[in-house]
## 1
Amino acid sequence: MDEQKKISRRKALKYIGVGVLGAAGAYAAVRFTPLNDKLRESLAKGDVRPITTRKDKIFGDQISLLAFGCMRFPTRRNEEGTMVIDRDQTRQLLGYAYANGINYFDTAYNYHNGESEVVTGEILKDFPRESFCLATKMPTWLVTDLERGKELFREQLQKCQVDYFDFYLLHALSSIEDYNRAYRDTGVLEYLKEEKAAGRIRRLGFSFHANEETMDYLLEQYPWDFVMIQMNYLDWEVQNARYMYEQIEKRGIQCLVMEPLRGGSLTRLNSEALGILKEADPKSTPAQWAFRYAASHANVLTVLSGMNRMDHLQENINTFRKFKPLRKSEYEVIARALEAYRKISQIPCTACAYCMPCPYGVDIPLVFSTYNEMVARDMVPDINGPRDEDFIRKGQEFLSYLEKTIPVEHQSHNCTDCGVCKPHCPQEIDIPAEMRRINEILGALTMGY
Ligand code: SF4
Ligand code: SF4
């Protein structure tokens, strides 16, 4: 191991507070899964299994089946009162992830208003470049011509402080027109192919939020190295992820999964669905079921999760360290839980924030996640039902939870129905209509019981 690598490793271990390793187990390309001392000892004793990796079809690299999504880092308010990434906490999380074998980190131009690429690059530069995969994405909506495409790509290399990207994605392709406008007609795809030939892109692919026809079209345009789709046990049918996955697999292209928990909603199941999962396996959490579902598909190279809490990161690492694909009987458990879950109507928001900012201050993802949480906890009163004790109790809970979770200036009642947000939602949620629905409940509650 050369001196620079020793220092890098020492830094890595400092983040997770486990001291300095001996000379054994030097870094070697992304095939190596970095481990800390304690974990290495436990592995030697056979107490735990290493985090599961899958072999990439392009270079044969071993990629961790759990990938770190850099979209939802912990945040804090700076002196000017602006929310910014909390660098210390983020460093702890990424360092811990890396030391425990996660070697795929996924950022994008627009995450955290452009700050995610910078912070991800700052932290990862402490680790040997060949020991991790860095993915980022070209912001499709900003590509106006070839020059702009070139500018964006160069800026991204600079922001991330790297010479190349391991995975480079055309971000959030939502229609054929979108793709043609940004990549075909401008020549930007040709330019990206040149960057790939020059080694500044190792694998080229796209992330996808569209229909079957668009998927078929895109798959014909280029022999992509990978495709990233939204896949979880709800979207397998609801968004026809099954079709997308099967088309990708049929062409021998590897699949990357985003939104395995559907923006967290699959961790907030209603009591009936939760009961079904608990009865089948009292020790597994809803998140573990959902991760196992996504990763059980053999053509999935890695599953992304945006982890901003250490306990979530640890739980997820544990799931993938002991990764076991679902058995047939477990698929049946999920199908039953899903049926129970779909009886209640949550808003299928993934908190991607593409609809933001709202010109009238509504925090759309926060309003929807709060509402969904109240649905899951059975706190939403039936405004068409009788004004009985149940209605009063739920009404009080609904109002007080809303009050404490969403600052008044960001609540749904600020919505003017302007419709600006609606075309930006990749989930095709009728945002103004959902705001009206929530406001109707509020109206019924504030008019008195
Ligand atoms: S429709 Fe409502 S939520 Fe959407 S941008 Fe307009 S005011 Fe904001
Ligand atoms: S409403 Fe749509 S665009 Fe907005 S955060 Fe939710 S999923 Fe994303």
Note: Residues 1-33 have pLDDT under 50 and may be disordered.
## 2
Amino acid sequence: MNANLFDLTGRVALVTGAGANGGLGHALALGLAQYGADVVASDIDMDGAEATRNEVQALGRKSIAVRCDVANPDEIDAMFLEIDRAFGKLNILINNAGILPSRVRPLELKLEDWNKTLAVSLTGAFLCSQHAVGRMIAQGTGGSIVNISSIASLAALGRGNMPHSVAKSGLNQFTKELAVEYASHKIRVNAIAPAQIMTQGFKKLLEDGRFSPALYERLLMGIPLNRLLEPEEFVGPVVFLCSDAASIVTGVLMPVDGGNMALNAGGSHTWPTA
Ligand SMILES: NC(=O)c1ccc[n+]([C@@H]2O[C@H](COP(=O)([O-])OP(=O)(O)OC[C@H]3O[C@@H](n4cnc5c(N)ncnc54)[C@H](O)[C@@H]3O)[C@@H](O)[C@H]2O)c1
């Protein structure tokens, strides 16, 4: 066994939604590279994907950028062919791409927005995983899939998050089913459930006049560690799940949430720090 359990040298990782847009996928792509992985930076935004590819290459790893809308099965097919050509293998898949197309209450939600959320956040993960699992089985190497879920999958958020929550709940059960189906091939499938991350999109939400300034304070009341999370703080948990350190961990949903899910919502207060 490798003395460095977290070493990902020689493994190829695909991260969806990895454009250099200050989001989680960007941080994870760089983090996986820092631990030795070569990285396929995929995003619907090609400029963002290319910027991430350049940053990964600057870290001394191999990388390609691929434009792919994970809601489009043809683009997913084409992306995996490109990965085959560039690397000839795949060891790690991070199903990170996810959207919140509109933030309206269930009665006002348009069918197209419901369908779009599920297409990107759930069906996209399913289709990418089908390709990845097929290749991992053919390689005979096993592999690791990490699905980026959300605390929204475990408790309702309100505030127009319903399709997002439903898609992420589906992703949780998808994680378990896939883990059970392919454990015999040493393919491990896990998910993380982040609380609110200080991404560009989330910063915009905090500035949204409908919620601010109270939203930030309200969110903190639910987070015992008393701060919102930074994208880079997810590198540790995700590298762990992808690495040999997690060789017997599969089918797990790990909250990465500053203690949010540990706190009973009925008592959404913690003692003052002072
Ligand atoms: N930000 C949070 O507070 C938070 C909390 C819990 C879970 N999450 C989950 O983390 C993941 C990343 O979220 P984020 O906040 O970093 O998002 P983000 O909006 O900051 O970044 C998402 C990236 O995905 C890309 N993208 C959008 N639609 C795509 C598509 N159809 N195909 C491929 N790429 C696409 C975007 O161009 C962008 O680069 C999502 O699955 C999200 O649901 C985020």
Note: Residues 16-17, 19, 21, 23-25, 43-45, 48, 68-71, 96-99, 120, 148, 150, 194, 196-197, 199-202 surround nicotinamide-adenine-dinucleotide (CB under 6 Å).
